[in-house]
Amino acid sequence: MGRTPPGQTREKIFRFMEKRLISGQPPTMREVQDAFGFKAVQTVAEHLKALVAEGRLLHEKAKARGFRLPDGFGPSGPPVLVPVLGRVQAGALDLAVEELEGYIPIQSRSMSQSVSQNGADEFFGLRVRGESMLGAGILPDDVVVARRQPSADPGDIVVALVGEEATVKRFKLRRGRVELHPENAAFRPIVPDPRDLSILGKVIEVRRFLEGLFS
């Protein structure tokens, strides 16, 4: 069997990268090497460098898994890859975990504009545990996408840190004190000591997956 022409191989690599980036799972060069059976990772580097030179991929050299699709990809601008940082409790408080599970693509014009101004680190995702926010349509194992901000307006759904424990709740003010309210009558509001409370971000989107997100 003859060798596949470099152009055909490169096209297959681009399609592989495109699929992984759209799914929110940017691959490492080692993963590309394993997928195509190359003997050396340098072969992958050369193909990816060529795709960048052709304008089909962009590469942020300071970042691991730093490849992305060019601006203008898709009808609402380029997908924004948001890191999913472990789990957050929507119920009783639980210890906050910031262990990277992977990435999910968020594609909206407003987010793309915000990223261009402030950087992709402005957003983060957390997988939800518990049932305290059922009334807001947030179910166990959903992923909430939040914009990092240290404050909130009454009525906002927020990711809040109380001591070392994180939770998703609706932000309310009563007599000048912050209360974190569930959207489920089976749960009680949390009235934290102001010294223990930090707002990590405002929830702006909820993602639901019928199959494992990173399986």
Note down, in words, how this protein is organized:
This protein is of the alpha+beta class and 215 residues long. It folds into two domains: 63 residues, Winged helix-like DNA-binding domain superfamily/Winged helix DNA-binding domain (Arc Repressor Mutant, subunit A, Orthogonal Bundle); 128 residues, Umud Fragment, subunit A (Ribbon), CATH 2.10.109.10. Helices cover 22% and strands 32% of the residues. The chain contains four helices and eleven strands, in the order αααβββββαββββββ. The strands form two sheets. Strands 3, 4, 5, 6, 7, 8, 9, 10 and 11 form a nine-stranded mixed β-sheet that branches. A two-stranded antiparallel sheet has the order 1-2. Strand 1 and strand 2 form a beta hairpin. The longest helix is centred in the N-terminal third of the chain and has 17 residues. It starts with 5 loop residues before the first helix and ends in an 8-residue tail after the last strand. The mean pLDDT is 83.
- Superfamily (CATH H level) name of the largest domain: Umud Fragment, subunit A
**Which ranges are low-confidence, i.e. pLDDT below 50, for 5 or more consecutive residues?**
none
Classify the beta-strand content into a percent band. 25-35%
CATH fold-level name of the largest domain: Umud Fragment, subunit A
Count of beta strands = 11
Largest sheet: 9 strands, mixed
Q: Give the number of domains.
A: 2
What is the overall shape? elongated
The assigned structural class equals: alpha+beta
Q: Helices and strands, in N-to-C order? A: HHHEEEEEHEEEEEE
Helix content: 10-25%
Which CATH C-level class of the largest domain is it? Answer: Mainly Beta
